Amino acid sequence: MDGGAIYMQAVGNAVHAPTGLPSVSLYGATRDSLKPRREDLADLDALVFDVADVGARYYTYIWTMMLAMEACAESGKKLVVCDRANPVGGETEGAPQDEGYLSFVGMHPVSVRHGMTAGEMARLLAAEKNLDVDLTVCEMSGWARDVDLSATGLPWVSPSPNIPSPATALVYPGMCLLEGTNLSEGRGTTRPFEIFGAPWLDAVAFAEKLNALDLPGVSFLPVHFRPMFDKHAGETVGGAMMHVTNPRQRYGSQPEPRRTPGPGANRSGFRSFETGMRVIETARRLDSRRFRWRTEPYEFDSRPAIDLLTGSSRYRELVEAGGDLAPEIERHDAGAREFLSRREPYLIYPDRKPAAVAFVGGHDSGKTTLIVELVPWLTARGLKIGTIKHSSKDAEDDVTGKDSHLHATSGAAVSAFVTPARETARRFGQEERLEDLLARDFSDCDLVLIEGFKFLPVPKIEVTRARASRPRIEGVLARVSDQPPEDSLPTHAFADVQAIVNTVLRLAGLDRTVRKP
């Protein structure tokens, strides 16, 4: 109960000192110990799962939850999941494992970095495993998949001794792969999973080889370290320390497209799983004679640990053969994209806060009128709404000669006009990125309706009228029109306000809380 047990250490039953209640271990010395027994649940009305996860398939807490769900289904008990933020956000990485490689580091096929909360995962598992369980998810409020954990104001409490910080959680989905090798993953140091190596590696050569790969969002420094425990304890280890230069992937929880290595490639979002695969490949190529795969049983399973972690034998066999990893990485990318559609029905929280939907179309198509009409309807749903009007040309927004206008034209970088009922800040210079504007001025909104920004990667609704011009716009997902539908896009009449509202909520991901799997 104190959270002090180390990596793969069996924990026995005990007494919870503050209450005197029995504490039943769900991680003992045998595989049978992982699931609650019927007699453990006999006197209970409900079982509550209130455990912080780190968003990686191999982190076994979600599988303890799944086994508890099975036990509750078999015993007719209620299971309550107290939901928590996913500390690594909503992005997905890594293909679901092959059916023949299910284990306690992945008891159901899901992406390595699944981008779900425990409550959302419980909904998926209940549906896909056909569990007849009385499941309740106590939902969070105000969280979205792109919200950094630091922005929540919540303290970080280590979910296990070797995940001491959110930075560790971010790299864990890839660097945990080193557990399947004789490389140190930094256990026994103050930077587990961020520093790594082996006594037989040349630190400078290792870091240079890794940097030459120009992996997205990360760079490497040569280091030497001496683990206090675990692999190579007490030995001087040559290795590298990773520095994540860009932790974020692209909007909408979509896997970042791989870039061809070259200058600037590492400016895209960090890909932990790909990084872990490349680290192992590089270490083996530097010294294949002393590199070894783990052969000891791993989480109650005697199969190669690296196969259980990657979900098949393909990666291990490619590395052993010195083959090209690119096709295997592409396979994992494709599997992660496919998992997005699988998880969608079970998601509760939006992809971003604030969510944004753009209304685009030609001049005089009715965009402004439509947005103004939608705001009170969306506000009535309990949402805090913001609006943005974008113009491709500069325009005056004040009355010439007024004091506020004189302030604005004085040459100041920022000029504000404040009254007891409103405040307006004008910033002068080059147009800033939409994401920066949303983060600074709309962070407390649930949804921002945007007029314009035809070419930015936000969900778009085209607004058309027969009398209006109609520029070509890519990426439209729905349409509001005074004409009959012209293709397969959802098309609504201007008067069908409720249908438009529902489409806006769907595109923003804000309809998820009312879905039932």
Describe the protein:
It is a single chain. By secondary structure, the protein is of the alpha/beta class. It has 4 domains: 1-30, no CATH class; 31-152, Uncharacterised protein PF07075, DUF1343 (Rossmann fold, 3-Layer(aba) Sandwich); 166-346, Aspartate Aminotransferase, domain 1; 355-394 and 434-514, P-loop containing nucleotide triphosphate hydrolases (Rossmann fold), CATH 3.40.50.300. 26% of the residues lie in helices and 15% in strands. It has 13 helices and 16 strands. The strands form 5 sheets. Strands 10-13-9-14-15-16 form a 6-stranded parallel β-sheet, covered by helices on one side. A 3-stranded parallel β-sheet has the order 3-4-5, covered by helices on one side. It has a 3-stranded antiparallel β-sheet with strand order 6-8-7, with helices on one face. Strand 3 (46-49), helix 2 (61-75) and strand 4 (78-82) form a beta-alpha-beta unit. Helix 2 (61-75) crosses helix 3, helix 5 (203-212) packs across helix 6 (272-286) and helix 10 packs across helix 13 (497-508). The chain is globular and about 75 Å long.
